[in-house]
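README: folding subset

This subset contains proteins for which both the sequence and a predicted C-alpha cell string are available. Records are stored as plain text. Below is the entry for Alpha/beta hydrolase (292 residues), shown exactly as it appears on disk.
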Amino acid sequence: METVDLNDWPGRELSDEELDVAYNVRRKAGPELFDRHMARYRAMSAAAVDGLPGRPGLRYDEASGERLDVWGIEEGRLRPVFVFVHGGYWMALSRHESSFMARALHERGVATVVPDYTLAPAATLEEIVRQVRASVAWVHRHGRGHGLDPDRIVVGGSSAGGHLTGMTMVGGWQEDLGLPADVVKAAMPFSGLFDIRPITRVYVNATVGLDVARAAALSPALLPAERRCPAVVAVAEHDGDGFLLQSRLFQRHWNAGDLMVVPDRDHFDVVLDLADPDSAVSRALLGLFATL
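--- output ---
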C-alpha cells in the first residue's frame, strides 16, 4: 500500500463553512423536508415487512449484543442476500427505518438483512466498522439456518452506510474472521463517504471524534483491495456536493463497476427507489445479483 499524504484530501482547500455546505445534507434539505423523508423511511419500512416472512431481532454479535433482521426468506430454499447498512452519519437511525426494500426484493427472489450497529458516540467508528463486518460474517456462518445463501451476499448502504459498505468491500479483514476474501460478492453504496478525512472538519466530528490519521485508516478509498468486487456506486443528482465528489472519486478508484447518478433525487430519497422494483436503482441492484 502506498503511503498516504494525510494532508492531501478532496476539499482540503475549502473553508470549514464551505465544507459544511458540501457535507451537511440535513441542512440542505431543511427541517421540514428532512422530517418528511424520515417519516417515509419509517412508514415504508413498516409496510414492507408487514406480513413478510422473516426472523427479526437475531443477535449477530456477542461482544456488542447488536441484532439484525432477516426478511423475505422462503421455506426450503436458500436465497441470495442483500445486506443493507443504514445511514445517519454513524450517529442516528436504526434497522427499524431501513427495511423499505425488503418486499420488493422478496418478490424478486432476494432476501434482505438489516443490521443495527452501536451509534456514535457510544461506539468509535472503528467499533462500528467491526460490527458491520461481523454482521456479514454472521450471514456467511449462520445464513443457511435462516434461508440465506452464504455464497451470494451483496452489501449496500446509504450515506454513512455507504461508507460502511465500502469498508466491507476492501481487503485485509476477512481472514481474521475466518471468511473467504470474496465473501462480499458485489456492492452498491448510495451517496457514500469513501475518503472521510473531510469529516474531521465538519459538524459530525463533534460526535464521531476523528483525527485525520484515524479518518485515513477508515477510508475505503485509501485501503487495499486486491480483489475488486463488482459494484454500482450510486448518488443522487441533487445530493450534497461532497457526496457527489466522493462517489465519482471512489468509482474511479474502485474501477470495477459503474457510477450511477440518479436524476431528480436527493441525498435522502434516492435509496427509497429500492422499494420500487421497476426503478433504475432496483434494476441495477438486481443486475448485480444476476452476475452471482
